Amino acid sequence: MSPSAVLPETTSALTKAGIKNTINKTAPSVTNGAPSPLAELDASKLIYTQNLNPKAVPEPNSPEVWAQSTCTDHMITASWTASSGWAAPHLLPYGPLSLMPIASVLHYATECFEGLKLYRGFDGSLRLFRPDCNARRMLGSAARISLPGFNPAELEKLIMELVSVDGEKWLPRSRPGHFLYLRPTMIGSHGALGVQRPKEALLFIVACCFPPFDDPRGSIETNHTATVDSKMTTAPVKKPGLRLLASADDMVRAWPGGFGFAKVGANYGPSLIASAEARERGYDQILWLFGENCEVTESGASNFFVVWKTREGKLQLVTAPLGDKIILEGVTRRSVLELVRQRLAGEVECVERKYTMAEVVEASEEGRLVEAFACGTAFFVSPVSEIHFRGKDLDIPLEHGVSGKYAAEIKTWLKDIMYGKEQHQWGVIVQEKGVTGAF
After folding, report:
1. Which helix (H) or strand (E) is 407 found in, with range?
2. pTM of the entire predicted model
């Protein structure tokens, strides 16, 4: 049989087949495939090296925290090669990585990452929130960007091990209600030019001090002259909630058949210049639209929800669907939908479908728009107060003054799980070792 006879007929099918084959070859335990001579990622082989020069923990809300550049004392690394598979992972002092100037990641964007948080609960416990979801999503992102696969359970164990060592010091029990941001990352580290799959990769996990971005008063306070739609306007001092600038016709963040669903750097870098320009003009984020019909997709790097009433009076929570692979399947997004379906059944209908800015404007003009919010790991659940779309400001109701009713309720549910006020299977308790217990 000729090679062309067994190849998929479309690029989309080719990509899907490539992802499946990558996982089968590099992580057969995930798919119950044939055993591979390549070693799989194995958290039980973790090697420990203590940091003998530990850092001081910055105060909450300090400039060091807002700089988002202070990491904990340790990190985890694991290297992979096409000839041997995964080497034993290593928990070691946080510090620089060593890469060749022609490393694949520096030229061909062979990189993916995850974002999740470690929470110090009001009951004294440390928790992760649904880390299994992040680990599974990272596997898909890695395979999509031609990086090796791994068993998500092993990545979850490595994350757990890092926070069990550093969590005790960096989130002391005296600071309940605070968190650290965790960043598992994988890069193509092979030092060779040429548009090809990297033959070497590096996985690393760090924990970073991070500020809260979900303050309902918003992240921007400004009163300056700005240019919007080629007109000079004076931006008022910001009211509660996020101000969003809808993307223009000639801007797009992701597209069907692309990689908007994967958490890869190539999804974020090209959007930064437009996002920075929006902030200069007094907006918090860009509301990314797609196509001639201005379909609503995401808010900045977060998922976006609206709550409205249909003309028949039915209350709906609406968000863009995942089918076209434009939308990132956010863990917070999934949790919001699952909780609303469980706890507000009969009151609010959850709808995942394509919808347009024309529908949002129409609902607003007819008094049917109830509220809107963005959600994600960094911004958590952030109410939206205004959307600037094609020269007009669309005011979004905030029933509770600084938030809509449903955003506030959903946020409370999630925080209670994350910080231990509600015992829930999504809140995974960390067995703390500390430095003394690990070394």
Report:
1. helix 405-418
2. 0.90
